[in-house]
Design a protein that fits this description.
98 residues, mainly alpha, 0% strand, elongated
Length: 98
């Protein structure tokens, strides 16, 4: 079973950035938002990788082997850092649009 505190710690940045990005999504639909397309794509890819790594971590944590859990957790932590970086870049880009 996965540690609930770990799930919250890792999920927090991903969920928060996804929700905040959704608020700015209407701005991204405007023609001027083409400048944010690369940032939006990077964030989407990071979100996908995060989900894949979370699923891998959950599988390893539940079904073993136990010695693989630290590596899976480290991979998920790196994916969380990537979500934070790409999400922050996307939000900065969207916030700069007029």
């Amino acid at each position: 079973m996965t540690d609930p505190e770990a799930r919250i710690r890792w999920a927090g940045p991903a969920v928060t950035l996804a929700l905040v990005a959704a608020v700015f999504a209407a701005r991204a639909a405007r023609p001027a938002a083409g400048d944010c397309g690369g940032a939006a794509n990077a964030f989407g890819m990071a979100a996908r990788r995060w989900h894949e790594r979370y699923e891998h971590y959950a599988d390893v944590a539940q079904h073993g082997p136990r010695d693989a859990v630290p590596a899976a957790a480290a991979s998920l932590t790196r994916a969380t850092d990537d979500i934070a970086a790409t999400g922050g870049a996307l939000l900065r880009c969207l916030a700069s649009l007029e």
